[in-house]
Design the sequence.
């Protein structure tokens, strides 16, 4: 006889780990017990030595699909001659660091049940099991027990209870277990809160109105969504008008993978991501078609596509049998609605009808957005299905909060070696978004029982997140924006030692007070040095130039052409005023932003003169790139005093203008510009003497630029890192800020 005490940490709660262990113990004739601890699970196992050894091996090899183990340890224990193997009640006295799972898309078994007329959960929209269903969006506290979720309001019926208590059932301890007799139900209303129908009839009605061109708000997993028939141009235009969303592409939900393939190119990695338990919106290359409304994704080569991920969505799409636009249920930049009353109030002017239910959502969790880059998932918006998985560091980080940036904000909290990154919160431009930001910071502290002594924020003095951090009365550190981007990449990839970080994005406050964004930084843990950057240019009107990109066009062009020529060329715009602003240095901050250089070139070649959402002009420039062209412009590198380099772009602008005047295709100009950037990266890397290259910043959401840069650097012997699970855009800033604190702390010891 042998007895061991096993401690397993990681994602082992809410994934069917205890029933798996129970079954394994029975199979191997092992006695003892298992209990959920706040860090994972603890097992006491006794049996004959060979079986104990098998048990230790199989625990790791055969663990449930959604589980992951971050640490596994065991010690010998005294034999107590247990009579059976039992699952003991959770204790909640210990430290709360057990990992909380994201919401998981409905599994195959549950899907079969909801479409099987013989099954007691036939067409029941809240069907789930230990392998799938809501988690993060319904948890109020840990440990993960039904009483700590919003499912506590529903008392289990006898049948559900029997399943819940049977270790051999798929729903053993499935905390959100429910059925048509005891669980939540859907109801269907018009936008004046008049009840129209209930239960399955509610879903049928929703489908019927969507088919008729109406807009229906649906309470989903982590918040409301607005749905409309994706093939109905009029319905989509109405949705855009009412939501004040001009051109930013709308995501779609398709009834099936086969249906997706009718309208999009799907490779095997994309298919895997689309069908995964994370079930994000995946960017897929469009196929030419006349079915999907043009205004779904105007001037874009990609569609944002997802598959139905809850039983509710599955049933609705089964009834509809046609793709729908599915966008966040919010007013422009506000957080998505999660509460029924709030939704009626806020979305009543957008949606004609409401499909709601009575299971409460604890926190907003938007749909995640991802694409495949170099065969790997690449996160653009990280929320449902991914948050709040942590990034794990190699040393303990004292309790702290990172407040993130301003756009695409996320926050982070540290607990032991875990850095928990929040779900996507969004741009902190509105009072409501700032409210959500504060709420999530509060929420994370409660959930993980962390009392932070330190807060880390951006260097920008005017960000609301910085001001908020200042007022907390904690130790406050500020981290330069682009340095934080690089640290985020370093944290995610666990890079050790010095790296050359290439950080290209829209804007970030620099240590010299200028707006940075075309940066090559030498980064070594808690220190960084600016090695090269785009030569500064004036941004006439500051923030205004981000939308009115012709302002940047005028600024760039005026550095290589006479005033008269610029005025002539920009005759449709008030170039005169802009030239004056620049000359007199009025409201024209200096910038080294790569994002703005993309804008300026899009303007100069008259691809677009306005941008209605962040990165639009750059995206359009990427869309027209001729992937087969190897022609290029050339950036010049000018050595500055401190052995660093200024990147001279004037020659590029001059040639762009020259090509344009000579009737060279915009597609070719775009390629020459993109290729020049890849060359620039290689040149600077060669000068830096560094071997490890890290890429981050929103400009690298440009798939062509990112993949070509990775290939070029790899072919030249560099070790290249970029971001995959954590957004390369400002959604990754909070992780970088926390990583700074981690290094600071480590190096002070
Ligand atoms: Zn399931
Ligand atoms: Zn039931
Ligand atoms: Fe940024």
Sequence:
């Amino acid at each position: 006889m042998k007895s061991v005490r096993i401690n397993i940490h990681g994602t082992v709660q809410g994934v069917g780990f205890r029933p798996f262990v129970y079954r394994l113990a029975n199979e191997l004739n092992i006695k003892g017990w298992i209990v959920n601890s706040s860090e994972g699970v603890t097992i006491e196992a006794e049996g004959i030595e060979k079986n104990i050894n098998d048990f230790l091996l199989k625990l790791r090899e055969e663990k449930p699909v959604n589980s992951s183990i971050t640490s596994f340890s065991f010690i010998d224990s005294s034999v107590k001659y247990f009579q059976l193997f039992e699952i003991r009640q959770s204790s909640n006295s210990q430290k709360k660091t057990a990992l909380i799972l994201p919401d998981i898309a409905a599994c195959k078994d549950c899907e079969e049940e909801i479409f099987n007329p013989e099954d007691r959960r036939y067409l029941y929209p809240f069907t789930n099991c230990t392998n799938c269903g809501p988690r993060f969006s319904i948890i109020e506290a840990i440990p993960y027990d039904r009483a700590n979720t919003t499912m506590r309001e529903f008392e289990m019926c006898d049948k559900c209870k029997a399943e819940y208590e049977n270790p051999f059932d798929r729903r053993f301890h499935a905390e959100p277990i429910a059925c048509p007799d005891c669980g939540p139900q859907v109801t269907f209303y018009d936008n004046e809160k008049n009840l129209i129908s209930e239960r399955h009839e509610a879903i049928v009605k929703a489908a019927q109105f969507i088919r008729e061109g109406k807009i229906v708000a649906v309470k989903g997993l982590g918040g409301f969504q607005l749905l409309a028939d994706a093939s109905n141009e009029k319905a989509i235009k109405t949705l855009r008008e009412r939501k004040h969303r001009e051109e930013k592409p709308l995501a779609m939900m398709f009834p099936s993978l086969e249906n997706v393939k009718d309208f999009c190119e799907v490779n095997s990695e994309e298919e895997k991501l689309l069908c995964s338990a994370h079930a994000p919106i995946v960017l897929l290359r469009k196929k030419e078609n006349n079915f999907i409304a043009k205004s779904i994704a105007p001037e874009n080569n990609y569609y944002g596509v997802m598959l139905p991920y809850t039983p509710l969505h599955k049933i609705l799409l089964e009834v509809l049998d046609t793709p729908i636009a599915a966008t966040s249920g919010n007013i422009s930049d506000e957080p998505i609605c999660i509460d029924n009353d709030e939704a009626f109030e806020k979305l009543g002017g957008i949606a004609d009808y409401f499909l709601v239910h009575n299971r409460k959502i604890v926190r907003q969790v938007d749909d995640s957005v991802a694409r495949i880059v170099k065969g790997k998932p690449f996160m653009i918006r990280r929320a449902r299905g991914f948050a709040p998985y942590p990034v794990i560091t190699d040393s303990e980080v004292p309790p702290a909060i990172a407040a993130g940036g301003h756009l695409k904000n996320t926050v982070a909290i540290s607990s032991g070696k875990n850095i928990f990154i929040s779900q996507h919160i969004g741009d902190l431009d509105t009072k409501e978004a700032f409210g959500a930001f504060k709420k999530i910071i509060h929420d994370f502290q409660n959930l993980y029982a962390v009392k932070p002594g330190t807060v880390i924020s951006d260097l920008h003095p005017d960000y609301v997140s910085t001001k908020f951090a200042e007022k907390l009365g904690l130790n406050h550190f500020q981290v330069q924006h682009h340095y934080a981007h690089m640290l985020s990449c370093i944290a995610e990839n666990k890079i050790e030692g010095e790296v050359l970080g290439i950080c290209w994005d829209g804007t970030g406050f620099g240590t010299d007070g200028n707006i940075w964004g075309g940066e090559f930084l030498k980064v070594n843990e808690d220190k960084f040095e600016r090695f090269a950057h785009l030569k500064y240019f004036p941004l006439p009107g500051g923030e205004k130039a981000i939308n009115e990109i012709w302002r940047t066009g005028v600024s760039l062009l005026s550095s290589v052409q006479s005033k008269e020529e610029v005025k002539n060329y920009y005759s449709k715009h008030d170039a005169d005023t802009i030239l004056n602003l620049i000359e007199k240095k009025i409201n024209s901050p200096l910038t080294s932003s790569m994002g703005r250089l993309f804008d300026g070139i899009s303007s100069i070649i008259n691809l677009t003169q306005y941008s209605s959402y962040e990165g639009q002009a750059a995206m359009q420039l990427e869309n027209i790139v001729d992937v087969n062209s190897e022609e290029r412009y050339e950036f010049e590198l000018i050595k500055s005093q401190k052995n660093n380099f200024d990147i001279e772009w004037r020659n590029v602008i001059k040639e762009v203008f020259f090509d344009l005047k000579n009737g060279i295709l915009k597609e070719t100009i775009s390629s020459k510009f993109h290729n020049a950037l890849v060359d620039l990266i290689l040149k600077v890397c060669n000068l830096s003497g560094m071997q490890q290259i890290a890429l981050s910043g929103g400009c690298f959401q440009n798939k062509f630029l990112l993949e070509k840069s990775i290939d070029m650097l790899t072919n030249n012997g560099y070790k290249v890192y970029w971001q995959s699970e954590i957004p390369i855009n400002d959604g990754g800033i909070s992780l970088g800020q926390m990583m700074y604190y981690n290094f600071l702390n480590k190096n002070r010891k």
